[in-house]
Design a protein that fits this description.
Helix content: 40-55%
Largest sheet: 2 strands, antiparallel
Shape: flat
Strand order of the largest sheet: 1-2
Mean pLDDT: 80
Strand content: 5-15%
CATH topology: Aminopeptidase
Low-confidence stretches: none
Number of strands: 4
Number of helices: 4
Distance between the termini: 9 Å
Structural class: alpha+beta
């Protein structure tokens, strides 16, 4: 699988970077009710574009839950869960780079506030695309 992933990323590096930038660029701070609905829309759209069927689960007063399903070729089920909100960006004066902007250096790409939360969506979508193109 490592060779398949490496080959896919080599061929689609611009798409992979664009996806990561898109996920990082969308604020989603539940504590401030900022960008949560928009992030749910984005996650649902990206899952659908990758081949998942989706369902939005709504409970009054709570952030939307996006349920995605993609049947595989085996009888096994894999369940993945994660949240898509991040901590508030304040205090802004402590930032080395702006929040929600992918910052590139000579050795890495990073987004200070959202990287851990967004990694799961990025990995899930890219991993699914690699599996489909195998």
């Amino acid at each position: 699988m490592t060779d398949t992933l490496t080959s896919y990323l080599d061929e689609h590096v611009d798409d992979a970077q664009s996806l990561l930038e898109q996920l990082c660029r969308q604020p989603s701070v539940a504590a401030q009710r900022w960008g949560i609905a928009e992030m749910a829309d984005l996650v649902e759209l990206l899952l659908r574009e990758t081949g998942f069927s989706t369902q939005r689960l709504v409970v009054e007063g709570a952030p939307p839950v996006i349920f995605g399903e993609l049947p595989g070729r085996s009888p096994y089920t894999v369940l993945l869960y994660n949240h898509y909100d991040v901590q508030p960006a304040e205090p802004f004066d402590l930032w080395v780079s702006p929040p929600f902007i992918l910052t590139k250096s000579s050795s890495a790409c990073q987004v200070s506030e959202s990287s851990g939360v967004r990694d799961w969506a990025y990995s899930l979508i890219l991993g699914t695309k690699v599996s489909i193109h195998r």
